[in-house]
Design brief:
By secondary structure, the chain is α/β, with parallel strands linked by helices. It has two domains: 5-137, Elongation Factor Tu (Ef-tu), domain 3 (Beta Barrel), CATH 2.40.30; 155-309, Nucleotide-binding domain of ferredoxin-NADP reductase (FNR) module (Rossmann fold). It has eight helices and 13 strands. The chain has a six-stranded antiparallel sheet. It has a five-stranded parallel sheet with strand order 9-8-7-10-13. Strands 11-12 form a two-stranded antiparallel ribbon. It starts with a helix and ends with a strand. 38% of the residues are buried. The mean pLDDT is 94.
Amino acid sequence: MSLSPEEIADFRQKRYNGTVTHLDRLHSDLMVLRVKPDFPRATYLAGQYTTLGLANFEPREIGCQEELVKPDDLLKLVRRSYSISSSVFAAAETLRNPADDDWLEFYVVLVRENPDGRVPGLTPRLFHLKAGDRLNIGEKITGHFTLEAVKPGDNVVFLGTGTGEAPHNSMLGELLRAGHTGRILNACCVRYARDLGYQDIHARLMARYPTYKYLPLTTRENLGGGKVYIQDLIASGELQSHLGTKLDPTNTHVFLCGNPKMIGIPVKNKETGVWEYPQPVGAIEELEKLGFKADNPALKVEGSIHFEKYW
């Protein structure tokens, strides 16, 4: 069964409510995407997320895992949550104020295939878009991964992997606009240097703000300091050196976003009732050795380690 042009046009008219206004392909598998909703954009807090979606009948990027869509599923919407990102700067090197924009920015990596055999449904379609194309964007913006617990003089450490730096970019922009007086360290770990999509922006920010430091890390090539994982930085004490002061849980907030193995969220053992750290050792375990405590909604614990499950 194939769809008629009329059926496709009708679906797009009814279900698509946003337009691609900007699409920057940083390389074949990484892009910055801006989408303008048809509706008045909701106010939101830096670090929050919404959804993007496309129908199953939309074309996919070549070179991705083969997909067989059942005829009855062609008119279904494939959606996924994405944190709202920010390029921090607006025109003339002024700091961007999201309230002045009528669009939202997203930082997206192309998932060509999944190791577990699940066929990636959305990103191969997102990467087939061009400026002016239509898609579905969520009307609700939500999420607990925000700066609400941070005081003006606190030190803030962002630790992210890959496109997990997206919410950190939004939060960084908010801190800088507010004149944050504490130190800010932003470490992003990727496989290759080409995957550091915002690196030039962070270099400009470091030149302008002496209390801000961006730390690019790679795991599959040497970026000057060797191949490094975020967990290793914490365990070795190097993270503290880059921050320039003690990693003190009384005045430091750490934000983690990206690969779950990097984050290392403790899980409650169903038999013993004990909360256990996953293996290999993640950032939460290393930080809790230093006296930090992670947020734990299940126990109603608000700590100084905040994390977002990115997948």
